[in-house]
Design goal:
heterodimer, A: alpha+beta, 3-stranded antiparallel β-sheet, 3 helices, elongated, B: mainly alpha, Cytochrome Bc1 Complex, Chain C, Helix Hairpins, 2 domains, two-stranded antiparallel ribbon, 65% helix, binds protoporphyrin IX containing FE, binds FE2/S2 (inorganic) cluster
Chain lengths: 177, 423
Amino acid sequence: MAQSDTVDETRRDFLFVATGAMGVVGIGAIAWPLIDQMNPDASVLSLSSIEVDFEAVEVGQAITVMWRGKPIFIRHRTAEEIRVAEETPLDILPDPETDMARIERSQWLIVIGICTHLGCIPKGQSIGDERGEYGGWFCPCHGSHYDTAGRIRKGPAPKNLYLPPYAFLTDTSIKIG
Amino acid sequence: MSGQSTYTPGSGFARWFDERLPIMRLMHDSFVDFPNPRNLNYWWTFGGILSFLLVTQIITGIILAMHYTPHVDFAFGSVERIMRNVNYGWLIRYSHSVGASMFFLAVYIHMGRGLYYGSYKAPREILWILGVIIYLLMMATAFMGYVLPWGQMSFWGATVITNLFSAIPLIGTGVTEWLWGGFAIDNPTLNRFFSLHYLLPFMIVGVVILHIWALHVPGSNNPTGVSVKDKEDTLPFHPYYTVKDGFAVVVFMILFAYFIFFNPNILGDAVNYVPADPLSTPPHIVPEWYLLPFYAILRAIPDKLGGVVAMFGSIAVLAMLPWLDRSKVRSAVFRPIYKQFFWIFIIVFLILGYLGSQPPEGWYLLISRIATAWYFAHFFLILPLIGLLETPRPLPESITKSVLGSAAGGAPSGSAASPETKG
Ligand code: HEM
Ligand code: FES
């Protein structure tokens, strides 16, 4: 009698744990589609690459194109802007990165135009825009200043403007994404 | 206070029904014969006002949803159509948008009442925490509702708020893109916000039911903070408090009506009448007035993650309040030092609200840092210390004594047995 009791108990424990484990796996398997449905869907992902030709953009000018719902800033930098960006010592940068590491060809700076703080679009693309203390871009939302390499210099943003993946197709056109 | 039921079914049918589903009994015991402290003042009517406002928001919201189109190309236009073409659309929409502001006005007063009279203390901790949960749900609901008209402030407010989640280390970007359903705020975001904006108010209803349930276990606190000792300390909910609450609701409706009919847009931002443009951020992004103090806290901290943690922490700390305040005495009426710090706290909160609407530079930034520090010090330093150091004033023996003075001492049963006769 006593013996069969213990046997029963261990079998029950096993069944209990096995059922519970299956239950957890089952709930996870059901929960995942319910969660994943909110992620970007295939049609959003398929918009992921564009080609841009910026032959008409003069020195000192900039254009904005949309890629994946985000503005991409393409800036034709002046010689002075390039020089300042290259000569900035790394140890004064909140997010140290050389100018070289942020460009393919030094006259063309191509960055994602979204402030790395809380996602506003910094000013500085149009002539007459406020460009902040470092001549790049200025985010009016909470006051972040970016330099002529799109690096954060002052304000609450933690990171430099992100770089989109791109490759030059010709001297004045690129493929983003 | 959940004593014996006093419900007596009035008819044969009522008895038959009561034996099968005692819902009339529940209503009777909760809202007719429920014993409430006899000394509640008008600060206690805001629960009733809030219930009224919740129902208003749900009714006007369901009607708006009949005419609204949750699509980036049509949302703004559909709201304008509600305003111009739909019969009484302007009334419904203004009631809903002003109603949201009134809802927050009432909830701030309701919470302030709780802070002043120590309503969060034992045995009402769960009641208080349920209130904090309602407040959080309200903020989420109002935030998503504000996105629906798809104006400039809708779009950029949503951008800034959803980007808060990108501050989470490692998974931040993934979480934000999951919230958006894309790589920026777009149609999928608007769709899901509409769905959730419709859902959350009904979740609020659910938590409100729990809130009232938790209230009806110990019963209401009262201006003295002294617990109810016997029946003579109380009055039946009906007619005493149904009438008092009803009167307060009507007075509150006058204020509500003033805004709807004379100043419907004063509480909102004019920039939201410009259609959303993902390529241009308005120069000055501010949330609706009721979120400003927390926005000020967010911006006071010069670090992204730190700011986000402080902002959420400033709300989370409310849930810990019952354990941070060490004083056994509930009501600030008998706590001379706490009373002063209570008012300082209210002023600091209002200052934060003002600073939230100003650009974060120079003096504004400095003061918002001081105010933020004070906000947290109030909970983590001042409250625990006052609890230890303060000598409370003597408490009245009972609620009845505090109302009737020594007269009650002489003939307690006589005066309380028929409170109706007391003017
Ligand atoms: C807790 C209750 C609620 C709160 C605090 C709330 C808050 C808000 C706010 C602040 C807005 C933006 C107003 C504007 O500027 O136009 C809004 C819009 C809207 N809400 Fe609600 N709401 C609530 C309940 C509901 C419910 C229950 C529904 C639907 C069943 C609903 C449907 C809508 C719709 C369709 C809009 C867009 C139209 C418009 O912008 O006026 N709301 N809500
Ligand atoms: S979003 Fe640019 S500074 Fe905050």
